[in-house]
Amino acid sequence: MAEAGVYDRAVSTQAELTAFVLAGGKSTRMGTDKAFVTLDGRTLLERALDVARAVTSDVRIVGEPRKFAAFAPVVEDELPGCGPLGGIHAALRSSGRDLNVIVAVDLPFITPALLQFLVGRARDSAAVVIVPRTVHGWQPLCAIYRREFANLADTALRAGRYKVDALFAEARVEAIGEDALRSGGFGPELFRNLNTPEDLAEARAENHESH
Predict the structure, then answer these.
(1) All domains in the chain, ordered by first residue
(2) Any residues with CB less than 8 A from the CB of 171 and at least 6 apart, and which?
(3) For 74-111, b where at least 16 C-beta lie within 10 A, e where not — what string?
(4) CA–CA separation, 129 vs 1, rounded Å?
(5) Alpha-carbon gap, residue 173 to 98, rounded angstroms
(6) What is the rounded (10 degree) CA torsion for 48, 50, 52, 54?
(7) Residue 204 to residues 32, 77, 78, 191, 208: CA-CA distances in angstroms?
(8) 69-121 pLDDT per residue, tens
(9) How many CA atoms lie within 13 A of 203 on its CB side?
(10) Based on the number of CB atoms within 10 Å of its own CB, is 56 exposed (0-12), middle (13-18) or buried (19 or more)?
(11) Which pTM was predicted?
(12) What percent of the chain has pLDDT over 70?
């Protein structure tokens, strides 16, 4: 009976969940569009889409349609030039689902298991945001947001406030601390992002050594 319950839960999670890959950044420090740089033979966009599709079939990209329409449905920022909060705002405003996975395209070490873990916590929580918090701080670009967070984001963006985690004091937030993450088998290294050519070269070298 337990196995059937787990299966039913997985199916219902798929049905109530949308995932968004944030790919609208300017990639200034990388010097080229991060979405299309490769790591271990796949672009960062392909890696992010694969991970997102492991938790739901409803996966969309937040970014420019001319760049990304060939890969998945695309959502454009309603308020351009506002950074990741603008992307989260656009995602949630476009969503028809209560629970929404947000993943940045430059987090190539995120795993399906981690997203499933966060989704499971979200389904058992009344919080508006379910977000990891490691020794390095909040991880708002690998988190679950309820659609109502769009209202907070809208108010903040129109006031010129663009920092995502600054809004956490205004919402019901469930922080998933490092102990809870580690108990699920997830270390802080999963949240490492690639911002510069040096970051990318280091990740490629590590991948080469591991093979």
Answers:
(1) 7-210 (3.90.550.10)
(2) 127, 128, 129, 149, 152
(3) bbebebeebbbbbbbbbbbbbbebebbbbbbbbbbbbe
(4) 31
(5) 15
(6) -150
(7) 16, 31, 35, 16, 6
(8) 999 999 999 998 999 999 999 999 999 999 999 999 999 999 999 999 999 99
(9) 23
(10) buried
(11) 0.90
(12) 89
Structural tokens at position 105: 């395209």
Q: Which residues partner with 20 through β-bridges?
A: 60, 102
Using CA atoms, how far apart are residues 16 and 18, in angstroms rounded to an integer? 7
What CA–CA distance (Å, rounded) separates 111 from 105?
13
| CA 8 to chain centroid | 24
- Strand (E) or helix (H) holding 156: helix 149-158
Radius of gyration of the chain (CA): 17
Beta strands at 17-22 and 59-62: parallel, antiparallel or unpaired: parallel
Altogether, the residues listed in the chain come to a count of 211
Residue 25 CA to residue 33 CA, distance in Å, equals 8
Residues 6+ apart with CB under 8 A from 204: 39, 40
Q: How far apart are CA 64 and CA 177, in angstroms?
A: 34
